[in-house]
Amino acid sequence: MIKIQKINVLLVFLLLIGFKSNAQESIDWITFPELEVAMKEEPKPVMIDFYTVWCGWCRKMDNNVFKDPKVISYINTHYYAVKFNAEQKQTVTFKGRDYKFVNSGRRGYNEIAAEIMDGQMRYPTLAFLNENFNILQLLRGYQTTEELFPILNFLGENVYKSKDWNEFIKTWEGD
To answer: Alpha carbon of 109 to those of 6, 105, 121, 123, 135: distances in Å?
Structure first.
């Protein structure tokens, strides 16, 4: 009888581990070329995380906000997410154009970051684009989960098409 109980306990434990491993543990980051392919198959809003390797606030967003299970699940469901080092030296091809690295000061930048960020190279910057790659919103600087989540909802579910931000946030109850 004790052996059967131990086996049952072991089975329950293994099932729980299996369920936990099915949870999304990270954002499904893709590249700009992958974004173009995915968008043709299933259009969705886009979130681009522009970061640099030296940016402490960028690391803090990675370690705190982008590891939050609620944020991970929401972004993976409602967005295509691109993580892009704004100082990347490799050329990026997007929408039929090659974006190159530009030497500037001590570091430099990639042209695609400068174009989307409207030349204001502050990190982190989150860029939200619609299905036609038009910029909906640029969020500059560190965002907490509590600050980011209503924005994700507002843009990711196209609420902005029927309500303005102030109207939306008055009724926001969070999830």
So the answer is: 59, 10, 8, 12, 19
Distances 91 to 4, 26, 29, 163, 175 between C-alpha atoms, Å? 61, 26, 18, 38, 39
d(CA 71, CA 137): 18
Domain boundaries, the chain: 26-144
Residues forming beta bridges with residue 82, ordered by sequence position: 30, 48
Can you tell me the distance from the alpha carbon of 159 to that of 47, in angstroms, rounded to the nearest whole number? 16
pLDDT at 1: 55
Rg (CA), the chain: 20
Q: Which tokens belong to 4?
A: 């059967």
Query: pTM to 2 decimals?
Result: 0.85
Closest by CA to 120, choosing from 109, 132, 135, 136, is 109
Closest CA to 154 of 141, 142, 139: 139
Q: Are 159 and 150 in contact (CB under 8 A)?
A: no
Q: At 16, is the pLDDT very low, low, confident or very high (cuts 50, 70, 90)? A: very low
Rounded to an integer, what distance in angstroms lies between the CA atom of residue 47 and that of residue 49? Answer: 7
Q: What is the mean pLDDT of residues 148-153?
A: 96
26-144: which CATH topology?
Answer: Glutaredoxin (3.40.30)
